[in-house]
From TrEMBL:
GO molecular function: oxidoreductase activity
Record bears the keyword Nucleotide-binding: no
Organism: Telmatobacter sp. DSM 110680
Lineage, broadest ranks: Bacteria, Pseudomonadati, Acidobacteriota, Terriglobia, Terriglobales
Protein name from the UniProt record: SDR family oxidoreductase
Database matches in SUPFAM superfamilies: NAD(P)-binding Rossmann-fold domains
Location of the Ketoreductase domain: 9-191
Stated family: Belongs to the short-chain dehydrogenases/reductases (SDR) family.
Superkingdom, taxonomy of origin: Bacteria
The keyword Coiled coil is annotated on this UniProt entry: yes
Gene3D superfamilies registered for this protein in UniProt: NAD(P)-binding Rossmann-like Domain
Length: 245
């Protein structure tokens, strides 16, 4: 029998239409949760993800949402509550990853990354907090190994994820004892993209576990935080096969 520790729970995953977000949505559904996913530009992928969740006999809805916008986030949280009736798990996954030389970064590039990667999780958590307090729920932020280790070609991304890690810890203190807050920080995740194969091979060779991470590695960590003891809070869990050691 498959363990379903999240039966009766409702989860909201920002950026849940594809890649890591899709894997998280499906893993939460396999664990028994009904699911809301948000998307900004990935409507077709969102519909595909809904079909996959429905095949798992879970209730699911996809909502268009721009996590940079206060009103858009407020609307998405309200519509998720209207659909499920409650909210137990918020996964702040929506993010921008960009490469750029630090000495050539524009203010617009810097702000765009922080608007999505740091302000977005703040807005989603703030809007969901009342409902999560009522359910003694969980917030799980998706950080990055780049928030723990400096990557010279991704300074604005690294800084935004480091800020999200600190925001996780601040939320854990501010929202306790009603809401548990943790963070999953993936290292290199291999999506099987041909254009990234050279880099993937290089990272796998540098990783103690001699392979790259998968979206499933990340999603299993999310389910752990969604269903584990409420005495585990304020933690940043690196999912990197030892790459950051």
């Amino acid at each position: 029998m498959i363990s379903q520790p999240l039966i009766g729970k409702a989860a909201l995953i920002t950026g849940g239409a594809r890649r890591i977000g899709r894997a998280i949505a499906l893993e939460l559904a396999k664990a028994g949760a009904d699911v809301t996913i948000t998307y900004r530009n990935s409507r077709t992928e969102a519909e595909e993800t809904l079909q996959l969740i429905n095949q798992l006999d879970r209730q699911a809805v996809a909502l268009e949402c721009d996590v940079r916008s206060e009103s858009s986030v407020r609307s998405a949280v309200a519509n998720s509550i209207n659909f499920h009736g409650h909210l137990d798990v918020l996964v702040n996954n929506a993010a921008i990853f960009e490469s750029a030389p630090l000495d050539q970064l524009s203010v617009e590039q810097w702000d765009a990354v922080f608007e999505t990667n740091t302000r977005g999780p703040f807005l989603a958590a703030r809007e969901a907090l009342h409902h999560l307090r009522a359910s003694h729920g969980r917030i799980i932020n998706i950080g990055s190994l780049g928030g723990l280790r400096p990557w010279a070609g991704h300074a604005h991304y690294c800084a935004s994820k480091a800020a999200l890690h600190m925001l996780t810890r601040a939320m854990a203190k501010a929202f306790a004892p009603d809401v548990v807050v943790n963070c999953v920080a993936p290292g290199w995740i291999d999506f099987g993209e041909e254009e990234a194969q050279t880099a993937a091979d290089r990272f796998a060779a540098k990783t103690p576990m001699q392979r790259n991470g998968t979206a499933n590695d990340v999603s299993q960590a999310v389910v752990f935080f969604a269903s584990s003891s409420d005495f585990i809070t304020g933690q940043i869990m690196a999912i990197d096969g030892g790459l950051g050691l």
